[in-house]
Design goal:
Number of helices: 9
Shape: globular
Number of strands: 2
Order of helices and strands: HHHHHEEHHHH
Oligomer: single chain
Largest sheet: 2 strands, antiparallel
Strand content: under 5%
Radius of gyration: 17 Å
Distance between the termini: 48 Å
Amino acid sequence: MYMEFLTLNLKGVVLAVVFGLAFLYFGLGLGPFFLIGMIVFLALSSAVTHVGITRKRGLGIEQDPRGVWNVLANGLPPLIMVVLFYFALLWGSEGLALLSIIGFLSSLAAIMADKFGSEIGVLDGKPKMIFTLDEVKKGTSGGITELGLFAGICAAFIISLLLLLIPGHITALSGYYGFSLEKAVLIITVSGFAGSIIDSILGYYEERGIGNKFTSNFACGIAAGLIGMLLFIIL
């Protein structure tokens, strides 16, 4: 059995534990930081699922327990960034290690922004389909609302603040790419929000039979991580 608060089914919980061990292993000295980041995501995404739950049920929107595919879609992009961090340190590339941290947080910010945007945005007025701006049914993939977009930005910003948990390591890497905490927070927030928009764009195509929730969520996380790393280099 699992608590109602959790949105993962039993298989999802087991896989999430395996992922947690992978974050600890590949994260080396920052393993606990990466794991805490994923726990924060799981806890807040589970909590936001229950925001306005009575109203959501009244709208016919039920949250089924999420399983293996959901864990893979949301967990693989951040894990890929952590594996990159692992090899960066093995290769002695501290600059790449810093970029990997930014990529991890940007990826995590995107999947959190997407979750908040979906769960809170559905409580707003009529959603509009991205691109066409035609009104669509609540819960339709690719639909956006003003409240959902705002919730997504806030969620991405919350994830960016996890940088405050590793001041010592960040200070040690501060000579790379003109690092500053303010710059990192801004880039992670922007990249996370951009990733959630990419998810909505892919949702538009889902409604037309191209792709599915897994491909959209996975692409959302990967794209945000790469955007964050690229912005950090060029800005």
